[in-house]
């Protein structure tokens, strides 16, 4: 078995916030009735995390669940375990109308870290990044400049970003550009 | 002459000198200077030539309204034209050049136009250059282009960086004068999020220059206090060097921040465009002083009274030693008093009002300044500089009473509120007769989605010109804004400013009132576009009665300053000429941006490497390293072909096809769209989506399908694989993936919401590699233990296998006509599989082929291509694809449309193959002609080429095309004329040129 590689193989840039491409992460697109108890339980079993509210992400030790739309979730698990998680999920949901599909390889992930991560995001995404408006637990499925992207804050100094794999180069270029020293705005906190 | 004063200059840091050049001449200024103040300090009164008459022009204003002092600035990749000297801060090493002069600023050939001014009136160009027609293109236009134009266009790529910033706030305040600051403070005290922007580098606006007291202290102390209070509040953001550029629907506001213009060597972006969503917008944008229309009011040295005062107080620059003040209001007296207090000479204040001024008049007289009431300027003497003024009675026709020698004239025709941002999104204005200006009609503010007002105007922008009234208005505006965003507003006192006792101003639109034509032809309204009082009057006489028409006919207000100084004076003159009140004439439309903003700021980060996203497959970097000659396909870049040393595209494509058909080729097909459709109703849904039957497909099998829109036209095609009873994988075209995904969701969400179906786009999850050619299986068998033989994995089936140690799904589908497997593996392992296949295929001389090879091979097989054979007007029946349309199905998208009479018309052009009789390649899109001509005198046509290639397999040109009665005309020869007048003859043949029975792909 060959070694799976992420789009940019861990590229990193030290700007006024740090930009890193992260390795592969297990991601599963789930569609179904989010109000169903069976689905909630299956999600919990797959990730250890509870069903998130609208525009939120629910994070547990072994996984996370992000709210993508009124009938769509994104499960985040370990890359190695995706297939078993899907298999278990399908078993738990047997007889239900749902979709669970592996999208781990269709994505690239980035992490921003530093005390000005909020403003770097606000340069490229139309999202209110003020502390009172966006915090750990919040999740936005939005855009970064010209591409679709989603992100959340792992903590006050860390933003994690998901985008499509094919545009990883563009996303990385965009984040580096926004994080270039001299561009500090100093607006949040 | 203009010079630096030793005893003033509140904004200067005289400890830091800065050097700059103007037209190559070395000059120096101080930190804190604007380019304008620095030039004046170096006695550079002449800053440019006017647009039309090439008259000498000097600086008129001290702010954003400046029409004349626009410069070419910088060099090479830092060059930018039309930089406004009054709003650009001086920096060390700045290089300035004046515009619109030839050969030099001091001696300008175009100034001969000035002598011809009698002929160059409004509409001159329209009238003169209409006839004879050919002369416009070959004679007039080149000459006019040479002589016209302000700045030069930059030649090099802009070296600077720009960016955007998305900001959200409850209350956005535009303007950091006392009104804006007070409004911001009261709004911020309610807990609302407040963003304040000031276009200059300094807080306080005009107040520190104009003076006055607030709460018993000088107003500049008040400004300092309020700014430091705002700075400590965590819910407040305050930014200088940031202009409110435009107000748009739904509380959208653009802020243009000039981050590094004052320090061009600093790191970071030059400009930042703030894209702001505000609950409420307060426009505290101040007011602009108006010039007075008298003869010679454009001679360098004639300046707005407020500007003369600004230069003296803020920058320690005297515009002249002897300054005559001419006014219709009390405010200009402040200039006379300020100059006198700095030890400069003010020979006279010419006050057009017969009643004269209030308390300020007494103060001026007490300082020994001569005040002449009821008088005006008949004309200014001098050409490149003011030498004196001739005084007359304002009520008369210009008979000179006296001449006064002076070297500067400070004029004030009253103040107009800056209503631009109020008006951008529909705020209405009314004419205030007493103050003679348009001011916001606060009951008709711009409104949001629910009809609520979202812009509030404050201070002098609202027509409250004195400090006390302005502060009170701003206080109320701040409270109203906070309330409108849902905050509780506590009662608080308005800061107490000392009210001033000023006499009313009087509307003076022409000086003297009865000025004769000679004077009117030298009375400028629009400095930048050279529009005079006489031009507007001529326009009115010629029937351009609407203000919008008169504006365009005379070009009044159409220059880069957008008429900030000229519009009100111009429409007053127009109203007078039309003998109607000013409100009836109305104003022209105010549009964003308030002043021009850089193209770079608009583009933001979108340039260079990140100009646009380019989608890359997992094999992209291999393609790059191996000679790929890319072409765009959607946002992807796909190899058109892979060039080897010394090859051109044509020979590379031939090599790739020959190799693939004879042995083995690889195609990076990762870009193909892949949609998972799952649910108990998935089959039923796909029966509606595709023209053929999908619900009968057995798990493990594949079927080619056509997709039409509801109008019956072909929109996509591809192979559908049934994964299990409930799950299908639909392949789409590369460009169609997102579109077809959206199309499916649209129908599921809006029409068939009762169907139990979910769709997911998994295009990027998989790298997909086509292994094509008779030796492909042999190569693959080296990499797998699974049975992929003709029996183990038959044509149009798929199978999950392990290939090169990677979990793969192999589809036996062929778009080339050869034995072919399309292998899908997780994208993260796509490159590994590609490498393994190259290695395994080495003995078969494996090589990748590009999109052109793909196209040629599919055309040899007569396979259609969405976008070639189809163009949005083609139905499957046109392509003889009835075999792919189910007759058993009750319905599918497009079925009903395809039954319309036009669609069933037997004369619709139908697909055929075309073989040129001489073996040449037909031109793309060539038309087959028919006898006779149509109603427009064009040749009749009977068909067109849809795909055309050189076929290396057949060693001749082959094509497909749509032809009238095509399938019934096999063997007939049709005529395809070429652009050069010759014709190519082509025989109508079956579109399948190669392996008609499909034996090769089915082995």
Automatic annotation (TrEMBL), chain A:
Domain of life where this protein originates: Bacteria
Annotated Pfam families: SoxG (PF04268)
Gene3D superfamilies: Heterotetrameric sarcosine oxidase (3.30.70.1520), Probable tRNA modification gtpase trme, domain 1 (3.30.1360.120)
Chain coiled-coil ranges: none
SUPFAM superfamilies, A to Z: Folate-binding domain
Protein name as it appears in the record: Sarcosine oxidase, gamma subunit family
Classification of source organism: Bacteria, Pseudomonadati, Pseudomonadota, Alphaproteobacteria, Rhodobacterales
Automatic annotation (TrEMBL), chain B:
Ranges of residues in domain GCVT N-terminal: 619-889
Residues covered by the SoxA A3 domain: 522-604
EC number annotated for this UniProt entry: 2.1.2.10
Domain of life: Bacteria
SUPFAM superfamilies linked to this entry: Aminomethyltransferase beta-barrel domain, FAD/NAD(P)-binding domain, Folate-binding domain
Record keywords: Methyltransferase, Oxidoreductase, Transferase
InterPro entries on file: 2Fe-2S-bd_N, FAD/NAD-bd_sf, FAD/NAD-binding_dom, GcvT/YgfZ/DmdA, GcvT/YgfZ_C, GcvT_C, GCVT_N, Sarcosine_oxidase_asu
All residue ranges annotated as the Aminomethyltransferase C-terminal domain in the record: 910-995
GO biological process, one term: tetrahydrofolate metabolic process
Domain FAD/NAD(P)-binding: 170-421
Pfam families tied to this protein: Fer2_4 (PF13510), GCV_T (PF01571), GCV_T_C (PF08669), Pyr_redox_2 (PF07992), SO_alpha_A3 (PF17806)
GO molecular function, one term: sarcosine oxidase activity
Classification via PANTHER family: AMINOMETHYLTRANSFERASE (PTHR43757), AMINOMETHYLTRANSFERASE, MITOCHONDRIAL (PTHR43757:SF2)
Family: Belongs to the GcvT family.
Name assigned to this protein: Aminomethyltransferase
Gene: gcvT_8
């Amino acid at each position: 078995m060959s070694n799976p590689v992420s789009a940019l193989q861990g590229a990193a840039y030290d700007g006024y916030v740090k930009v890193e491409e992260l390795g592969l992460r297990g991601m599963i697109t789930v569609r179904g009735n989010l109000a169903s108890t069976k689905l909630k339980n299956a999600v919990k079993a797959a990730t250890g995390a509870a069903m998130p509210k609208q525009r939120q992400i629910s994070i547990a030790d072994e996984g996370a669940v992000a709210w993508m739309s009124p009938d769509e979730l994104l499960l985040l698990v370990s890359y190695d375990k995706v297939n078993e998680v899907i298999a278990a999920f399908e078993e738990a949901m047997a007889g239900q109308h749902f979709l669970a599909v592996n999208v781990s390889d269709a994505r690239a992930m980035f992490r921003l870290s530093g005390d000005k991560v909020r403003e770097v995001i606000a340069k490229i995404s139309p999202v209110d990044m003020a502390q009172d408006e966006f915090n750990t637990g919040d999740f936005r499925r939005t855009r970064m400049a010209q591409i679709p992207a989603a992100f959340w804050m792992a903590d006050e100094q860390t933003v994690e970003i998901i985008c499509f794999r094919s545009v990883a180069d563009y996303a990385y270029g965009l984040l580096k550009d926004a994080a270039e020293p001299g561009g500090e705005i100093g607006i949040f906190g | 002459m203009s010079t630096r004063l030793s005893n003033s200059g509140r904004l200067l840091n005289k400890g830091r000198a800065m050097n700059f050049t103007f037209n190559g001449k070395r000059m120096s200024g101080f930190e804190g200077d604007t380019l304008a103040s620095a030039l004046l300090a170096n006695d550079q009164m002449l800053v440019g030539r006017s647009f039309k008459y090439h008259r000498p022009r000097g600086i008129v204003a001290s702010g954003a309204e400046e029409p004349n002092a626009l410069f070419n600035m910088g060099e090479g990749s830092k060059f930018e034209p039309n930089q406004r000297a009054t709003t650009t801060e001086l920096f060390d090493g700045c290089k300035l050049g004046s515009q619109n002069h030839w050969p030099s600023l001091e001696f300008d050939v175009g100034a001969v136009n000035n002598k011809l001014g009698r002929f160059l009136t409004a509409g001159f160009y329209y009238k003169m250059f209409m006839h004879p027609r050919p002369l416009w293109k070959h004679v007039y236009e080149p000459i006019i282009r040479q002589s016209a134009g302000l700045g030069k266009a930059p030649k090099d790529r802009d070296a600077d960086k720009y960016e955007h910033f998305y900001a959200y706030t409850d209350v956005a305040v535009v303007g950091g004068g006392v009104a804006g600051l007070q409004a911001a403070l009261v709004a911020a005290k309610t807990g609302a999020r407040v963003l304040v922007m000031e276009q200059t580098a300094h807080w306080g606006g005009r107040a520190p220059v104009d003076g006055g007291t607030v709460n018993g202290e000088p107003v500049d102390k008040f400004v300092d206090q309020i700014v430091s209070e705002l700075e400590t509040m965590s819910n407040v953001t305050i930014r200088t060097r940031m202009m409110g550029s435009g107000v748009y629907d739904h509380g959208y506001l653009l802020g243009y921040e000039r981050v590094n213009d004052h320090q061009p060597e600093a790191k970071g972006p030059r400009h930042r465009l703030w894209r702001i969503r505000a609950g409420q917008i307060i426009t505290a944008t101040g007011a602009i002083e108006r010039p007075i229309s008298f003869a010679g009011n454009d001679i360098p040295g004639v300046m707005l009274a407020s500007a003369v005062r600004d230069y003296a107080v803020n920058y320690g620059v005297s515009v002249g030693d002897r300054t005559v003040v001419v006014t219709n209001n009390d405010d200009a007296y402040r200039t006379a008093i300020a100059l006198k207090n700095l030890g400069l000479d003010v020979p006279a204040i010419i006050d057009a009002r017969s009643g004269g001024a209030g308390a300020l008049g007494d103060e001026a007289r007490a300082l020994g300044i001569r005040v002449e009431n009821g008088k005006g300027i008949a004309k200014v003497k001098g050409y490149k500089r003011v030498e004196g003024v001739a005084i007359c009675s304002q009520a008369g026709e210009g008979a000179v009473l006296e001449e006064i020698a002076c070297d500067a004239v400070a004029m004030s025709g009253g103040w107009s509120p800056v209503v631009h941002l109020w008006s951008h999104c529909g705020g209405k204005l009314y004419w205030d007769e007493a103050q003679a200006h348009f001011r916001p009609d606060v009951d008709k503010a711009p409104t949001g989605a629910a009809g609520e007002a979202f812009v509030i105007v404050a201070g002098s922008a609202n027509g409250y010109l004195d400090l006390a009234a302005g502060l009170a208005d701003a206080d109320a505006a701040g409270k109203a804004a906070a309330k409108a965003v849902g905050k509780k507003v506590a009662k608080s006192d308005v800061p107490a400013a000392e009210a001033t006792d000023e006499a009313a101003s009087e509307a003076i639109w022409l000086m003297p009132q009865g000025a004769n034509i000679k004077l009117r032809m030298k009375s400028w309204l629009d400095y930048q576009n050279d529009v005079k009082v006489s031009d507007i009057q001529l326009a009115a006489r010629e029937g351009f009665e609407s203000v919008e028409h008169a504006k365009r006919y005379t070009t009044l207000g159409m220059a880069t300053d957008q008429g900030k100084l000229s519009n009100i004076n111009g429409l007053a003159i127009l109203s007078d000429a039309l003998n109607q009140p000013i409100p009836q004439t109305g104003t022209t439309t105010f549009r964003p941006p308030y002043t021009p903003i850089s193209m770079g700021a608009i583009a933001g980060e979108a340039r260079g490497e990140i100009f646009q996203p380019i989608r890359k497959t997992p094999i992209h970097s291999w393609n790059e390293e191996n000679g790929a000659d890319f072409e765009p396909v959607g946002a992807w870049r796909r190899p058109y072909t892979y060039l080897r040393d010394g090859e051109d595209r044509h020979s590379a494509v031939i090599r790739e096809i020959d190799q693939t058909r004879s042995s083995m080729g690889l195609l990076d097909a990762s870009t193909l769209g892949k949609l998972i459709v799952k649910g108990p109703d998935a089959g039923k849904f796909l029966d509606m989506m595709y023209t053929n039957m999908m619900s009968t497909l057995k798990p493990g099998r594949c079927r080619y399908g056509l997709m039409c829109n509801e109008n019956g036209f072909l929109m996509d095609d591809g192979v559908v694989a049934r994964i299990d009873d409930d799950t299908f994988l639909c392949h789409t075209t590369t460009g169609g993936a997102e579109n077809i995904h959206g199309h499916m969701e649209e129908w599921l969400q809006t029409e068939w919401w009762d169907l139990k179906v979910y769709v997911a786009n998994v295009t990027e999850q998989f790298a997909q590699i086509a292994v094509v050619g008779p030796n492909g299986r042999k190569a693959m068998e080296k990499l797998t233990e699974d049975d992929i033989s003709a029996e183990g994995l038959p044509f149009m089936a798929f199978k999950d296998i392990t290939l090169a140690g990677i979990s793969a799904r192999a589809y036996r589908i062929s778009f080339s006509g050869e034995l072919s497997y399309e292998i899908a593996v997780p994208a993260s392992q796509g490159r590994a599989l590609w490498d393994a296949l190259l290695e395994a295929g080495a003995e078969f001389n494996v090589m990748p082929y590009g999109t052109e090879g793909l196209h040629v091979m599919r055309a040899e097989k007569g396979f259609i291509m969405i976008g070639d054979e189809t163009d949005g007007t083609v139905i499957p029946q046109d392509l003889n694809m009835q075999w792919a349309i189910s007759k058993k199905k009750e319905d599918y998208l497009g079925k009903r449309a395809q039954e319309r009479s036009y669609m069933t018309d037997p004369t619709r052009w139908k697909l055929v193959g075309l073989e040129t009789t001489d073996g040449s390649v037909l031109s793309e899109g060539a038309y087959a002609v028919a006898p006779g001509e149509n109603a427009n005198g064009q040749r009749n046509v009977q068909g067109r080429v849809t795909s055309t290639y050189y076929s290396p397999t057949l060693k001749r040109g082959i094509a497909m095309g749509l032809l009238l009665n095509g399938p019934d005309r096999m063997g007939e020869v049709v005529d395809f004329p070429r652009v050069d007048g010759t014709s190519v003859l082509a025989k109508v043949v079956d579109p399948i040129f190669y392996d008609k029975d499909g034996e090769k792909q089915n082995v």
